[in-house]
């Protein structure tokens, strides 16, 4: 029986879980395969977060500092868990740096992998330098300049294509990535702030800015920043005869006519894939994967955030596409579950 | 060459020539027909700005294409070509030619405002219809409407003299619309109007003198005098010029902000 909790993944979910565990006086060991904590928002260089509007490096940075400086948390970066033995209440994990960790419970906060837009070759990513992803535009916003990668010019017209790697049976992505609509409408505003002369068009099938993101992002983007919304799923992106601008081809569903519209910059609103390491994670930790490849939930109503294996919890974007605020809530909930379980075990007579 | 399903092609995309020579080769006859592509090649971002600068069009950019306006529309119930949702979309993307294509029906909006009432985004589609009709008129796609002609004459007199002269407004309005005032008096609303101003039952009762006694004489005389001498409001001075300059400036500002 060990009262340390092993947390795998140092993004928003893992950071929230680690602080939760530490704040009630338990020990947490946080392991991340990357060379630093923070997860996707830090590693991919996100700009301002949805919905707070805070810069990722400030907001997530605070989470990192809070955990890294906590005496109850041990951090291993550039490290993976290579083996896990034992059972609930008494796990023994072997780390890739040779150390072993004895833990009473395990929290999997292993997150997601960005969809690789090269898997939709008809939309030009990888073929044309001015076709980029939302992640790249986040980085441009972070650097304070929107520019076409080909020649550095400021784009007069930007097209954001939604559902790249989401809601697409063709490539086996049958899920909605939940947050790309909101992120894209937010990016459209950020582009407009940096370059007021640029016109931003969003090509959509549906707009799914859920909950309070509706007016804060979708409506504001449309009404105050002049983002234009075009209902069309794009067929292909090619280069214009001038060799400079891109041609976005598709059918405008509402005009019922084909469109071939010139753009300077085309942005893929890439979705959230299951973490590319999920098969390895499933094998090492002995947990199940659901049909899309995300980690599988156990019984949720009375064993909240339990995986398919007792003593191992899973939450955040390891479960399904998820926004940062929800990830943080999942992390804290998993801390509660893990600590509660250890508490219950230590109360039992040995 | 016969075209199957011809009804599916917009008439303006169908070109056929009696005699057609391409690159020196006579292709008249079987190959004389060309169908222009349906592809939308570009957007005009300025168009939305123009419509937003017109009264009623201010909120057109808010539309998210739910179709409530068209669904509620009185005119759509009669003519399914009358589709406010579609025109709003075309306005926002700047598909100007699509708007011009429907120039002969957009003005038919009856301003019942069911669309305005139902719109979840407060686009005020009825106002957009007005703004579009206004734009079509300004650009010369439609003939100038009678209300516009009336407004022009009315405003002109106001600014020139600080007052209007009813009979001169009507006189010039009829001149501009090309309507025959005599005909209107005999058969149209003008005759009814004049009859109501006079006490016709007296005439029917053959009480000629009382009828004449009640004829409006002084008023029309004053009107006639004013029409000839065109008096201005006292100390009107340059007020008209200043007002005109102000109105022009406001219009320019509205366009710039659009």
Features:
heterodimer, A: about 350 residues, alpha/beta, FAD/NAD(P)-binding domain, 2 domains, 5-stranded parallel beta sheet, 18 strands, about 25% strand, B: about 260 residues, mainly alpha, Fumarate Reductase Iron-sulfur Protein, Chain B, domain 2, 3 domains, two-stranded antiparallel ribbon, 16 helices, 4 strands, elongated
Descriptive account of the structure:
The complex is a heterodimer of chains A (350) and B (258). With 350 residues, chain A is an alpha/beta fold. Chain A folds into 2 domains: 4-111 and 275-347, FAD/NAD(P)-binding domain (3-Layer(bba) Sandwich); 117-271, 3-Layer(bba) Sandwich (FAD/NAD(P)-binding domain). Chain A is 28% helix and 26% strand. Chain A is built from 8 helices and 18 strands. Chain A has helices at 12-23, 40-43, 56-68, 134-143, 180-194, 213-223, 278-285, 324-347, and strands at 4-8, 27-31, 73-76, 81-87, 90-95, 100-103, 105-108, 112-114, 131-133, 157-164, 199-204, 228-231, 234-239, 246-252, 257-263, 265-270, 272-274, 312-314. In chain A, α1 (12-23) packs parallel to α8 (324-347) and α4 (134-143) packs parallel to α5 (180-194). The N and C termini of chain A lie close together (9 Å). With 258 residues, chain B is mainly α. Chain B has 3 domains: 6-35, no CATH class; 45-138, Fumarate Reductase Iron-sulfur Protein, Chain B, domain 2 (Orthogonal Bundle); 146-257, no CATH class. In chain B, 55% of the residues lie in helices and 4% in strands. Chain B contains 16 helices and 4 strands. In chain B, the strands form 2 sheets. Chain B has a two-stranded antiparallel sheet. Chain B has a two-stranded antiparallel sheet with strand order 2-3. In chain B, β2 and β3 (25-26) form a beta hairpin. In chain B, α4 (84-93) crosses α8, α9 crosses α10 and α9 (146-161) crosses α16 (239-257). The mean pLDDT of chain B is 89. At the A-B interface, α6, β12 and β15 of A face α4 of B.
């Amino acid at each position: 029986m060990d009262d340390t909790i092993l947390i795998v993944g140092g993004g928003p979910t893992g950071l929230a879980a680690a602080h939760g565990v530490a704040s009630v006086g338990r020990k947490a060991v946080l392991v991340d395969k990357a060379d630093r904590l923070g997860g996707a928002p830090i590693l991919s260089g996100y700009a301002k977060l949805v919905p707070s509007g805070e810069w990722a490096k400030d907001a997530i940075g605070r989470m990192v500092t809070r955990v890294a400086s906590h005496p109850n948390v041990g951090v291993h970066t550039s490290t993976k868990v290579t083996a896990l033995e034992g059972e609930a209440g008494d796990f023994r994990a072997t780390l890739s740096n040779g150390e072993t960790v004895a833990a009473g419970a395990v929290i999997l906060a292993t997150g997601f992998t960005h969809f690789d837009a090269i898997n939709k070759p008809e939309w030009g990513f990888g073929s044309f330098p001015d076709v980029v992803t939302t992640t790249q535009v986040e980085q441009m916003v972070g650097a304070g300049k929107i520019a076409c990668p080909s020649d550095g010019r400021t784009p007069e017209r930007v097209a954001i294509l939604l559902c790249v790697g989401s809601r697409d049976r063709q490539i086996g992505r049958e899920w909605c990535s939940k947050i790309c609509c909101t992120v894209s409408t937010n990016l459209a505003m950020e582009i407009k702030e940096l370059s007021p002369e640029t016109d931003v068009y969003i090509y959509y099938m549906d707009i799914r800015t859920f909950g309070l993101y509706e007016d804060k992002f979708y409506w504001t983007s449309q009404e105050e920043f002049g983002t234009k919304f075009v209902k069309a799923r794009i067929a292909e992106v090619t280069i214009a005869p001038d060799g400079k601008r891109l041609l976005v081809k598709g059918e405008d569903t509402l005009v019922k006519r084909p469109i071939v519209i010139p753009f300077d910059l085309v942005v893929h609103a890439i979705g959230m894939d299951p973490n590319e390491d999920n098969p390895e994670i499933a094998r090492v930790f002995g947990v199940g994967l659901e049909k899309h490849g995300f980690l599988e939930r156990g019984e949720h109503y009375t064993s909240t955030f339990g995986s398919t294996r007792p003593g191992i919890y899973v939450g955040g974007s390891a479960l399904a596409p998820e926004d940062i605020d929800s990830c943080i809530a999942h992390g804290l909930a998993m801390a509660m579950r893990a600590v509660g379980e250890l508490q219950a075990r230590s109360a039992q007579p040995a | 060459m016969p075209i199957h399903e011809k009804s599916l092609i917009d008439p303006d995309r169908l070109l056929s020539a009696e005699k057609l020579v391409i690159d020196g080769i006579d292709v008249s006859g079987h190959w004389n027909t060309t169908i222009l592509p349906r592809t939308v090649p570009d957007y005009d971002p300025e168009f939305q700005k123009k419509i937003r600068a017109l009264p009623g069009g201010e909120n057109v950019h808010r539309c998210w294409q739910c179709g409530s306006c068209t669904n509620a529309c009185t005119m759509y119930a009669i003519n399914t070509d009358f589709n406010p949702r579609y025109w709003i979309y075309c306005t926002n993307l700047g598909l100007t030619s699509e708007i011009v294509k429907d120039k002969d029906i957009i003005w038919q909006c009856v301003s019942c405002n069911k669309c305005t009432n139902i719109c979840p985004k407060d686009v005020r589609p009825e106002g957009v219809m007005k703004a579009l009709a206004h734009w079509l008129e300004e650009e010369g796609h439609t003939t100038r409407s009678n209300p516009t002609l009336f407004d022009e004459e009315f405003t002109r007199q106001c600014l020139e003299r600080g007052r209007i002269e009813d009979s001169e407004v009507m006189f010039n309005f009829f001149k501009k619309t090309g309507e025959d005032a005599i005909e209107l008096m005999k058969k149209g609303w003008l005759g009814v109007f004049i009859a109501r101003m006079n006490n016709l039952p007296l005439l029917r009762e053959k009480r000629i003198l009382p009828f004449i006694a009640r004829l409006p004489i002084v008023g029309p005389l004053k009107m006639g005098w004013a029409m000839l001498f065109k008096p201005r409001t006292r100390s009107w001075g340059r007020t008209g010029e200043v007002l005109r300059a102000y109105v022009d400036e406001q219009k320019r500002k509205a366009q710039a902000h659009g």
